[in-house]
Write a structure and sequence with these properties.
The chain has six domains: 88 residues, Immunoglobulin-like (Sandwich), CATH 2.60.40; 112 residues, Jelly Rolls, CATH 2.60.120; 119 residues, Sandwich (Jelly Rolls), CATH 2.60.120.380; 103 residues, Immunoglobulin-like; 117 residues, Sandwich (Immunoglobulin-like), CATH 2.60.40; 111 residues, Immunoglobulin-like. Helix content is 2%, strand content 48%. Strands 34, 35, 36, 37, 38, 39, 40, 41, 42 and 43 form a ten-stranded mixed sheet that branches. It has 768 residues and is mainly beta.
Length: 768
């Protein structure tokens, strides 16, 4: 379709362009499941599927393309061996134009079929799409005493469908029902034992009768094995030898694996059974992990950061731990129950040594799991940390994990996180792509090195260092030729202690459910020829910087084979810009001045970048993404990237004192005291106008002069005046700063100088 459209454009403008390689676009799949040790037919609808597409699979399988497949629909027969591990996976479609966005698919031992009104065989997994207030119905024949599971998977796929299930007998008498639950990540499951032989009816609908788009689902009916919880739920690799799986069959113990998938311990399924659903896993913890022991009743813990793993097995049980702590320290207690699939409505209680309750926490916003920050009282060196169920319940599945951090210690519990918006990369020969990687430091202050776990030969990465004062980086990924096909790669970040963290794909639906999938990125070659198209900087100075509160104009030059086409320019930065009302927050976001298009026959343009007055970091990467558009501006024909600029943040207002920041004055019982000093301001980068001078942290009654420095003045005589009631001593918490208006059109927007820390020594009268 796109090639025919391009041909019309070429004919209309009379210029022979080389056809752009077009990545395949997947609109829908008829099913989202594959059968282990069986053959499944998968039909994909989309655009630019090519003549000979192929699926990029993370497991061995035989795939046969139906010869009747077209550029709009591809049909595959996929045969999986018996050794493929059940779970959820990402698969992508490969064509000569590159690789599609990934889509999620379930893999298990069930037969996979499109949704039907009659079920002929159990167990089965049926697939479909639901919308709005639609109610779907299917029926099957059952026998008395038959145990049955019915489960809908939707939210796990990123669907907007909130499933509610009903089970009726042939007379439409309801036997069971279930609705979305956090334990199943917003999906639902019901369990029933059929009371008699006969026909049974299943109906499902959206919780609010308003299923959004996409509304895809997979409904499983019959008997299979599944895992909802792993106990303990936090481990240090190599320290725990076995774990317990809780689900359809409770209390199955398996040996811990000796290897990990990135920072996650993906667990093996037990050797027997038809396993289905999310593959069980454990995060590889960097905390000291403690597992509840059957005795003694009061267990002592004292290391920070700490993870405690336990279970409330009987009604009204209370697990108690004696925690050694320091007076006045600030502790953070984060209790996981609902978030790890436990049925507990957990409560956290702190008691003193005599058992008297001194703090309690139950729900937090969006979860029934408690969160508590607590300052240890003076002279207190231990606490009783107690776990309860708020409803007094307890059973074999009622597990929990309590994480305790001493947040009064700077380094306690520090762990950085990384994210990228990129889900796949299609690279032509001598092509390059710029990829943002954003860093959430969470207290970490050092550098991070970012790179791929593996890449095809001929592909290299530049710009992988995130400096200690940066919020992220722009990676430049280039190809000199990829001869070995596509790979599934993972971006990893490594800190100064060689601790690794995966770069998660932003807003990935499986980030909490199978996190190793949320870091997979398909990298594939583009075999089709591409349009010769580029964007570059023109006459960029060596000393350019991002000046706080001002605009940076970047000269851009584009090169295209047809001067009559239009180009859209987009700013890329290493800043994950915070949002306000779904727009970049102007107070902190580096952003484009306006939407920019390079009109026909224009080759050079200034791209305006607005710099906030108070960015978090001190250095940022910038690039321009240029999209070559079709005549109707609906199709991107080619994409190019400008070389990455790594620019420092520069303050246009410098503020200093002539003789340092340690000031002295002699106390006078009648007049008080005056601290006299001289200072100056420097207006840089075109900053003009009046400057406001401010002193903060002054003791009550003290004041500072002057408050204003006129536009024609740079030097000033400063004075801090103390009243007579202040005691002679050293005052250390005083800060002095200046602020100015970088843009006269925005009088409310001010840029602040760096603060100066003053030490004011008030001497007693008569003391030399």
């Amino acid at each position: 379709m796109l090639k025919r459209f391009l041909a019309l454009i070429i004919c209309s403008i009379g210029i022979a362009l080389t056809l752009q390689a077009t990545e395949p676009l997947i609109r829908s799949l008829d099913i989202r499941g594959l059968q282990v040790n069986g053959t499944t037919t998968l039909i994909i609808d989309g655009d630019s599927l090519g003549k000979n597409p192929k699926l990029l699979l993370p497991f061995p399988a035989t795939q046969v393309l139906n010869p009747k497949s077209t550029d709009k629909q591809a049909s595959f027969n996929l045969t999986l061996g018996k050794d493929v591990i059940p779970g959820f996976y990402q698969i992508s479609l490969l064509t000569d134009g590159g690789v599609s966005l990934p889509f999620l698919i379930g893999v298990d031992h069930l037969h996979q079929k499109p949704f039907a009104k009659a079920i002929e065989q159990l167990p089965i997994a049926m697939h479909g799409i639901i919308s709005g207030s639609q109610i779907l119905e299917s029926q099957f024949d059952g026998v008395k005493g038959q145990q049955l599971f019915i489960e809908v998977e939707a939210q796990k796929f990123g669907s907007k469908f909130q499933p509610v299930l009903h089970l009726y007998n042939s007379k439409k008498l309801q036997l069971a029902w279930s609705w979305p639950t956090p334990r199943l990540s917003g999906d639902t499951r019901l369990e029933a034992i059929l009371p008699e032989d006969g026909t049974y009816i299943i109906t499902m609908h959206d919780l609010e009768y308003a299923a959004g788009t996409p509304g895809n689902f997979r409904i499983k009916v019959g008997q299979w094995e599944f895992v909802d919880q792993v106990i303990p739920s936090g481990v240090v690799n190599g320290q725990i030898k076995s774990v317990e799986l809780m689900g359809s069959t409770n209390g199955i113990k398996i040996d811990m694996p000796t290897s990990r998938v990135n920072n996650t311990l993906a667990l093996p399924w037990p050797l027997t059974g038809k396993w289905s659903g999310m593959r069980p896993f454990l995060p590889s913890s960097t905390y000291t992990e403690f597992v509840e022991q059957p005795s003694p009743p009061l267990q002592e813990v004292k290391t920070f950061p700490l993870g405690i793993n336990g279970k409330l097995t009987s009604p009204f049980e209370e697990d108690r731990y004696k925690l050694t702590c320091s007076p006045k320290s600030k502790l953070r207690f984060d209790l996981f129950a609902e978030r790890i699939g436990s049925p507990l409505d957990a409560g956290l209680v702190l008691r003193n040594d005599t058992g008297v309750e001194i703090a309690r926490s139950e729900d937090r916003p969006g979860s029934s799991d408690p969160l508590l920050e607590f300052v240890v009282p003076e002279k207190t060196t231990s606490l009783l940390v107690c776990i309860v169920d708020s409803l007094g319940r307890g059973n074999l599945k009622a597990n929990y994990r309590l994480v305790i951090d001493d947040i009064s210690v700077t380094e306690s519990g520090i762990h950085f996180e990384l994210a990228t918006p990129i889900q796949r990369l299609s690279l032509a020969i001598n092509d390059k792509v710029v990829v943002p990687v954003w860093l959430n430091r969470k207290g970490y202050k050092g550098k991070v090195e970012v790179g791929f776990s593996k890449l095809p030969p001929g592909v290299k990465v530049e710009g992988g260092l995130i400096q200690p004062d940066a919020e992220g980086t722009l990676l430049t990924i280039s190809s000199s030729g990829m001869n070995n096909g596509a790979v599934l790669a993972t971006l990893l970040g490594k800190d100064e202690k060689n601790i690794e963290a995966e770069v998660q794909v932003l807003n990935h639906p499986l980030q909490k459910l199978q996190p190793w999938l949320a870091s997979e990125i398909a990298v594939a070659p583009v075999i089709e020829k591409t349009i010769p198209f580029s964007v570059e900087w023109k006459n960029i100075g060596k000393d350019i910087a991002l000046v706080q509160g001002m605009q940076l104009n970047l000269p851009v030059k584009v090169n295209r084979p047809d001067p009559n086409t239009v180009i859209r320019l987009t700013l890329l930065t290493s800043q994950n810009a915070p949002k306000s009302n779904n727009q970049p927050d102007p107070k902190v976001a580096i952003r484009a001045e306006k939407a920019v298009e390079v009109a026909a026959k224009v080759t050079e343009i200034n791209f305006g970048v607005l710099v906030p007055v108070a960015p978090i970091g001190s250095i940022y990467d910038l690039s321009i993404q240029a999209d070559l558009l079709s005549a109707n501006k609906q199709v991107v024909l080619a994409t190019a990237y400008a070389p990455v600029l790594r620019l420092p943040i520069k303050n246009p207002l410098l503020f200093s004192l002539d003789k340092g920041t340690k000031l002295e004055a002699v106390f006078d019982a009648k007049k008080g005291a005056e601290f006299l000093f001289k200072g100056k301001v420097q207006r840089l980068e075109g900053l003009i106008g009046d400057i406001t001078l401010v002193a903060t942290g002054l003791p009550a009654g003290a004041r500072f002069e002057p408050a204003l420095l006129k536009a024609d003045k740079n030097d000033f005589d400063g004075k801090i005046i103390f009243p007579v009631n202040l005691v002679p001593q050293e005052y250390k918490d005083v800060k002095l700063s200046a602020s100015g208006i970088p843009d006269a059109k925005q009088a409310a927007v001010k840029v602040n100088s760096k603060e100066l820390d003053l030490s004011l020594l008030l001497k007693p009268a008569g003391k030399p």
